[in-house]
C-alpha cells in the first residue's frame, strides 16, 4: 500500500482495510509503475508481451520458482496460475477430482464454505462432515465432532472465513482422503505443510496480487480424474502439461504476483511474515477485548489473524464509527453485508503502523 494524503481525509497516511481487493505492498506498486511502459529493455510493457515469447515465459517461470521456494512445494505438486477466481474453483474441484455422482465431505465453517458447498453440490454429492451453524459460526468445529466418509473423493475446508472472522489454528487429519483447502484469504500468510494437502487454491486479491488470478497447487496423483466434459482451460492436467499456457494466461497479473513473491522473500520469507501478522492481529484483538465499547464474537482460539471482525457494543454507533474512521484515513472497515459490524483486514501488506493507527482511533472513539 502507498501511504498518501488525500484531500477528503485528515492529513496523514491512508490505510486500506478492505477484505478484497486488499492492500498491496508499496514497493510492488512502485516497481510496477516504473515498469508499466517498458520492462527492462524489452521495448514493451508486460501487458503487451506475447505469452508464447521468452520474455513473458521467463517472468512466469520465475514466479513459479519463487512460490515453490516460499512454500517449499515438493516436486510432485504442480503450481497452476488459472483464471476465474476462487469461486470458479467451487465448481472446478468436483469436475477435476470426482466422477459423476462422486462424493465429497465439506466442513461448514461460515459464509465462504457454504458458498463452496452450494456450488460444489451442483456437480457432486456433498456431505457436511461438521458445521459451525449450531454455534452461530462463532467457532470452528473441533476434529472430534467431524464425521468423515473414508470413501469421499476429498474433504474440503475454508482455512479462513473473511465474513465470520474465523480461521483454523490447527491442521485437520483426514486420513487417506485428500484434504482440499480454499486459502484465498490467508494464503502466504504463514508457512504450510504442503504435503498434508491434496489441493490448495487461492484467489489472488488478498495476499498475491490483482483479482481474477487464481493459484492452484495440486498433487500429481490428483491430475488424472477430470470428467470428460471439464473445459480444457480448467482441466488441471491439461494446464499442468502445457505449463499454464494452454490458453492465454493472465500475463500482467502473473507478473504482479511474481513481484509480490519477491517482496515476501525480501521480508524474510513466510516465517517472518507470520510473526508480523501475529503481532498485528494480537494487538488489535487485545484492544478490542480491553474496551467495553467493542465485542468480538469469535472464540478466541479460532479468531482470524487476517480478518478481525467485531461489533460496537452499541450497534447504533457503527455508522458514526465508520464515518469518523474514514475521515482519519482508515478505509473500508465496514463488515460484510451478510454480517454487518466492523471488519479490519490485516493482510501481509498492511503495515504495523496501520494497525496502530486503527487502535489509536478506536481508543479515541471509545473515550
CATH architecture of the largest domain: 3-Layer(aba) Sandwich
Largest sheet: 7 strands, mixed
Structural class of the helices, strands and pairings? alpha/beta
Strand order of the largest sheet: 2-10-9-8-5-3-4
Count of discrete alpha- or pi-helical segments spanning 4 or more residues = 9
* CATH topology-level fold name of the largest domain: Aspartate Aminotransferase, domain 2
Unreliable residue runs? 2-7
Order of helices and strands: EHHEHEHEEEEEEEHHHEEHEEH
Indicate how many domains the architecture comprises.
Answer: 2
Topology:
Blueprint: E1 15-16, H1 26-34, H2 54-71, E2 77-83, H3 85-97, E3 103-108, H4 111-120, E4 125-131, E5 155-158, E6 160-161, E7 166-167, E8 179-182, E9 199-203, E10 213-219, H5 236-241, H6 251-266, H7 270-290, E11 294-295, E12 307-312, H8 318-327, E13 330-331, E14 342-345, H9 352-366
Helix pairs in contact: 1-6, 2-6, 3-4, 7-9
Subcellular location: Cytoplasm
Family: Belongs to the class-V pyridoxal-phosphate-dependent aminotransferase family. SerC subfamily.
Main location: cytoplasm
Description:
It catalyses: O-phospho-L-serine + 2-oxoglutarate = 3-phosphooxypyruvate + L-glutamate; 4-(phosphooxy)-L-threonine + 2-oxoglutarate = (R)-3-hydroxy-2-oxo-4-phosphooxybutanoate + L-glutamate. It comes from Billgrantia tianxiuensis. Residues 14-358 form the Aminotransferase class V domain. Catalyzes the reversible conversion of 3-phosphohydroxypyruvate to phosphoserine and of 3-hydroxy-2-oxo-4-phosphonooxybutanoate to phosphohydroxythreonine. By secondary structure, the protein is an alpha/beta fold. It has 2 domains: 15-26 and 269-366, Aspartate Aminotransferase, domain 1; 34-266, Type I PLP-dependent aspartate aminotransferase-like (Major domain) (Aspartate Aminotransferase, domain 2, 3-Layer(aba) Sandwich). The chain is built from 9 helices and 14 strands. The strands form 4 sheets. The chain has a 7-stranded mixed beta sheet, with helices on both faces. The chain is globular.
Amino acid at each position: 500500500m502507498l501511504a498518501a494524503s488525500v484531500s477528503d481525509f485528515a492529513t496523514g497516511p491512508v490505510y486500506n482495510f478492505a477484505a478484497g481487493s486488499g492492500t498491496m505492498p508499496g514497493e510492488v506498486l512502485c516497481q510496477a509503475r516504473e515498469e508499466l511502459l517498458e520492462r527492462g529493455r524489452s521495448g514493451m510493457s508486460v501487458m503487451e508481451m506475447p505469452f508464447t515469447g521468452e520474455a513473458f515465459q521467463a517472468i512466469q517461470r520465475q514466479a513459479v520458482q519463487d512460490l515453490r521456494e516460499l512454500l517449499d512445494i515438493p516436486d510432485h505438486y504442480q503450481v497452476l496460475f488459472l483464471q476465474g477466481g476462487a469461486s470458479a474453483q467451487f465448481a472446478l474441484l468436483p469436475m477435476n477430482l470426482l466422477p459423476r455422482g462422486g462424493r465429497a465431505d465439506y466442513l461448514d465453517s461460515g459464509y465462504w464454505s457454504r458458498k463452496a458447498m452450494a456450488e460444489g453440490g451442483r456437480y457432486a454429492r456433498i456431505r457436511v462432515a461438521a458445521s459451525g451453524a449450531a454455534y452461530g459460526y462463532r467457532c470452528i468445529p473441533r476434529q472430534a465432532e467431524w464425521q468423515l466418509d473414508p470413501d469421499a473423493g476429498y474433504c474440503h475446508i475454508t482455512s479462513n472465513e473473511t465474513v465470520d472472522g474465523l480461521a483454523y489454528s490447527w491442521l485437520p487429519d483426514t486420513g487417506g482422503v485428500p484434504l482440499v483447502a480454499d486459502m484465498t484469504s490467508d494464503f502466504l500468510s504463514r508457512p504450510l505443510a504442503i504435503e498434508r494437502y491434496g489441493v490448495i487454491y487461492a484467489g489472488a486479491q488478498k495476499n498475491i496480487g490483482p483479482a481474477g488470478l487464481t493459484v492452484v497447487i495440486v498433487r500429481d496423483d490428483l491430475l488424472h480424474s477430470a470428467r470428460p466434459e471439464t473445459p480444457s482451460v480448467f482441466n488441471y492436467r491439461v494446464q499442468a502439461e502445457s505449463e499454464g499456457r494452454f490458453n492465454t494466461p493472465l500475463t500482467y497479473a502473473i507478473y504482479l504476483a511474481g513481484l509480490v513473491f519477491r517482496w515476501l522473500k525480501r521480508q524474510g520469507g513466510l516465517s517472518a511474515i507470520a510473526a508480523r501478522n501475529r503481532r498485528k492481529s494480537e494487538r488489535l484483538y487485545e484492544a478490542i477485548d480491553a474496551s467495553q465499547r467493542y465485542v468480538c464474537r469469535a472464540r478466541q482460539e479460532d479468531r482470524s489473524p487476517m480478518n478481525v471482525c467485531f461489533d460496537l457494543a452499541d450497534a447504533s454507533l457503527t455508522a458514526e464509527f465508520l464515518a469518523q474512521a474514514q475521515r482519519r484515513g482508515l478505509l473500508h472497515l465496514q463488515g460484510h453485508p451478510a454480517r454487518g459490524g466492523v471488519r479490519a483486514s490485516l493482510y501481509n501488506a498492511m503495515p504495523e503502523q496501520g494497525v496502530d493507527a486503527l487502535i489509536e482511533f478506536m481508543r479515541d472513539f471509545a473515550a
